[in-house]
Amino acid sequence: MTNHHKATLISAEFKAELEKELEHLRKDVRPIIAERLQSAREGGDITDNAAFEQAKEDLARLMGRMAEIEQTLREATVIQHNGRAKPRCVEVGTVVSVSRDDGRSCQYKIVESLEASPSDGKISDCSPIGQALVGHKKGETVSVHAPARTVAYTIHDIQFLH
Fold first, then answer.
1. How far apart are CA 66 and CA 74, in angstroms?
2. Residue 119 and residue 81: Cα distance in Å, rounded?
3. Does the domain at residues 9-78 carry the CATH identifier 1.10.287.180?
4. Count of CB atoms situated within 10 Å of the CB of 65
5. Start-end of CATH 1.10.287.180 domains in the chain
């Protein structure tokens, strides 16, 4: 049996955010936790020391987050547009401008779920709207089934995410 693991695609912007977070965790947060551990250890008996236990838990959580970021940076591929001026259709790494059937206009950045942040306009290609838009071209209308009703989105423009 072969493992067909799909590479995770991330934007250059998201890669930079992860690198900045990792640097902050290494240089700023880890030394503070290490100092808390040292202080708690110097406090005497560590078998029943709540401060020591809390610092150990915080360190474990920190190391887990750092390992997660390092793995993402190691395994993810930064989205490349291969010299194409404009995308042919909506795909991961594009910004799509749409209008809804209620007249409201929206713009979405299509990203993978790891990078998704709806409040920042970044929606996953696996979300209902993302799934409906991916693969479609400018001028096409897609339908998204929402709890209250089905919403139609017409694609007006597609650009590459920078």
1. 12
2. 25
3. yes
4. 14
5. 9-78
Determine the average pLDDT of the residues in 142-160. Answer: 93
Helix, strand or coil for residue 159?
Answer: strand
Does 94-160 carry CATH code 3.10.50.30?
Answer: yes
Tell which residue, 40, 75, 87, has the closest CA to residue 59: 40
**pTM of the shown model:** 0.72
Query: Is the pLDDT at 80 greater than 90, yes or no?
Result: no
Let me know if 43 is exposed, middle or buried by CB neighbors in 10 A (0-12, 13-18, 19+): exposed
In degrees rounded to 5, what are phi and psi of residue 144?
A: -125, 125
Delimit the CATH 3.10.50.30 region(s) of the chain: 94-160
Predicted pLDDT of residue 2: 42
